[in-house]
Amino acid sequence: MKRILAISLVCLLTLTLLVGCGTGGGNNSTETSGSEQTWELNLGCIANNPTTSTGYNSIGKAILEFTELADEYTEGKVKITPHWSSVLGNNVQLYEQIMMGELDFHIGQPMSSADKRFAAWNVPFVFESLEEVKIGFNSETGVLFKLTSNWMEENGVKLLAVNTSVFRGVISQDPVYVPADMKKMKIRTYEDSLVNKFWGEIGTASIIAGSEIYSALQTKTVDAMEFHATGTMSFKLYEVAKYFTDLNWQWTNGATLTLPIELWESFPEEVQKALQRAADEMVERQYSYEIADQEQVFADLEEEGMTIIKPTDEQRQEWIELSRGMDDWFKDYVGSEAYDEYMAAVAENKAAMK
Questions:
Q1: Is 328 helix (H, G, I), strand (E, B) or coil?
Q2: Which of 127, 175, 272, 353 is deepest in the core (most CB within 10 A)?
């Protein structure tokens, strides 16, 4: 009888420990009195804290508000702590942590180093407006969201939301209107093979970390860089460069909300619905913040002494034709099946908007 009692106590203790440990990885799950479960979770991102970096930070503001909405809509059951400015790793590392179940949430850019299909997002001159992106990546009806979600599920990742993020242009020391203007320039790019292929056909592409872009322009290590207008303002790059070309050469999938599928499936249905509601509202807010920023940023850059260049339709067409001439290479890199799926979804989304 004593032996049976001892075994029972060991089993009870083991069960208690398992309940206290939650779902594993970076997840902290606890039981409160009355058997109401709560979660204390971590979110990694490269965005800056909007409480200290207040200007032109639509993604940072949206991330912070997502954590607040998650707390509100789950009635305090889910507490999410955001970790800013890459303190938990860069985008490559953070998404890999999600895939391995070592991190609870990531809001950022899943890179093609994790899954080559993700390079499809980086193909130049695919989208024409943030509204088009917003519709295509709507979590309920978006054809692009559905396709991306399917890809991520194969990585063990749950896609919860895709923010509209930003379009990218060109910062330079000399005026840039057409690709030929950059033929002799050294151009800073971020770490992506497809991106480097595109800019390498235009000038000399050089991968430089985001933390070093100010000094790279200041010391003339590079002559130009592809970047977004709001980032040009928030990083104060107007101090070290003279021109910004409003090219919108690429939409950046830079604020995608993901979590491990195992964690998602551990939540009760009401918690899942509350988190999805918070995520969808975050997307709406980031979109509205970014639109407002876009309406103001060029005036602010000009006030700081930068010249804003807006290419004509004919000049912009030169960039588009250059990009389309690389489509076979892009397709081979992304993978024929994934590339065709993505472009078909883009075409379907455009048709639905007409």
A1: helix
A2: 127
Retrieve residue 101's tokens.
């179940």
Q: Which amino acid is at 183?
A: K
CA angle 270, 271, 276 (to 5 degrees): 100
Would you state the pLDDT for residue 210? 84
72 in any annotated domain:
yes
Structure tokens at 92: 């490559």
Mean of all residue pLDDT scores within the chain: 92
Its pTM surpasses 0.85: yes
Q: How confident is the model at residue 4 (pLDDT cuts 50, 70, 90)?
A: very low
**pLDDT tens string 273-322:** 999 999 999 999 999 999 999 999 999 999 999 999 999 999 999 999 99
Residue 103 forms part of a structural domain: yes
Residue ranges of E strands in 235-334: 243-252, 256-260, 307-309
**Tokens 């489509």 map to which residue?**
327
Compute the half-sphere exposure of residue 118: CA atoms within 13 Å on the CB side of its CA: 21
Tell whether 228 and 284 lie within a shared domain: no
Phi and psi for 222 in degrees, rounded to 5?
Answer: -125, 155
Decide: helix, strand or coil at residue 169. strand
Please give the residue range of the domain that contains residue 284.
Answer: 25-114+155-165+253-293
| Rounded distance between C-alpha atoms, residue 41 and residue 81, angstroms | 6
| Cβ neighbour number for residue 130 with a 10 Å cutoff | 20
Domain assignment present for residue 223? The answer is: yes
d(CA 58, CA 101): 28
- Do 269 and 283 lie in one domain? The reply is yes
Buried b or exposed e, range 88-106, using 16+ CB within 10 angstroms: bbbbbbbbbbbbebbbbbb
For the chain, helix, strand, coil in percent to 5 are 50, 20, 30
Looking at residue 261, which CATH number applies to its domain?
3.40.190.170
